[in-house]
Task: inverse folding
């Protein structure tokens, strides 16, 4: 897959994992797990569906017939270094299997094979799905992303502009500017900095108004807690202060910034 496709998949993984994590509740306060989105997350991971009896199991093989097994229920237990038969016995035993003392011990306690459950299990599956993605890139990958944004801007397709921006935001690790600093209908993202006085700063800052299809750039680092900085943000957004770049040039800037990133050899 191209860098663009890998970034899209990363964004999807982030969204799915957030949704499932929200459905798990807090320790001691369980909620009904969003199984449908957990299935979608698992489908993007190395875990493979294996139905046993009344169980929905997901198996990641590490050795022949041995590996990690997640049970899709409201607890989301994740077992390690064990087999499908072992987990099936523990989670859905048949009467004939409960004759054995050894089996009863396994059924009553799974601490010998339980890796984690709930939110930690979701994070583990997310990490294994992330391991499958390759974020190595060439200049052509970034040129494609920038060209997509420029073409969308020219068409006035605000949804496609945001899709192109999302890819750069994900790749660069930009974060949303706090809502209190936003102006009119602009969304703003930038590289986040935290000073010694704990003031939040962002820079560079990308701002986009999907209603007017206007995109602007501030290259300087701006403290969003500073009233003067807030005036600068508002001035640029409203067109009263000249931005450092505007329109197509913003995507050209993003491409050049992305080219400065260290190229990973292996994800």
Result:
């Amino acid at each position: 897959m191209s860098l663009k496709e890998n970034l899209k998949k990363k964004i999807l993984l982030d969204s799915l994992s957030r949704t499932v994590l929200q459905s798990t509740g807090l320790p001691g306060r369980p909620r009904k797990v969003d199984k449908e989105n957990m299935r979608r997350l698992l489908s993007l991971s190395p875990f493979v569906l294996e139905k046993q009896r009344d169980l929905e199991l997901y198996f990641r093989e590490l050795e022949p017939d041995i590996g990690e097994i997640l049970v899709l229920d409201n607890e989301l237990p994740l077992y390690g270094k064990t087999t499908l038969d072992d987990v099936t016995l523990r989670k859905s035993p048949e009467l004939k299997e409960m004759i054995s003392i050894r089996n009863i011990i396994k059924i009553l306690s799974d601490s010998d094979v339980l890796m984690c459950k709930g939110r930690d299990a979701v994070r583990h599956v997310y990490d294994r799905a992330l391991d499958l993605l390759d974020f190595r890139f060439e200049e052509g990958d970034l040129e494609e992303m920038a060209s997509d944004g420029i073409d969308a801007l020219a068409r006035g397709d605000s949804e496609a502009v945001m899709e192109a921006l999302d890819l750069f935001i994900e790749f660069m690790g930009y974060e949303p500017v706090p809502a209190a600093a936003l102006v009119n209908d602009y969304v703003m993202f930038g590289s986040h900095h935290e000073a010694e006085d704990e003031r939040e700063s962002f820079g560079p800052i990308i701002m986009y108004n999907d209603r007017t299809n206007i995109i602007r750039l501030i290259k300087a680092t701006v403290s969003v807690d500073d009233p003067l900085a807030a005036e600068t943000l508002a001035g640029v957004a409203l067109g009263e202060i000249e931005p450092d770049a505007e329109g197509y040039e913003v995507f050209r800037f993003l491409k050049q910034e992305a080219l400065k990133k260290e190229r990973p050899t292996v994800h």
The mean pLDDT is 92. Residues 151 and 218 are 22 Å apart (CA to CA). The two ends are 13 Å apart (CA to CA).
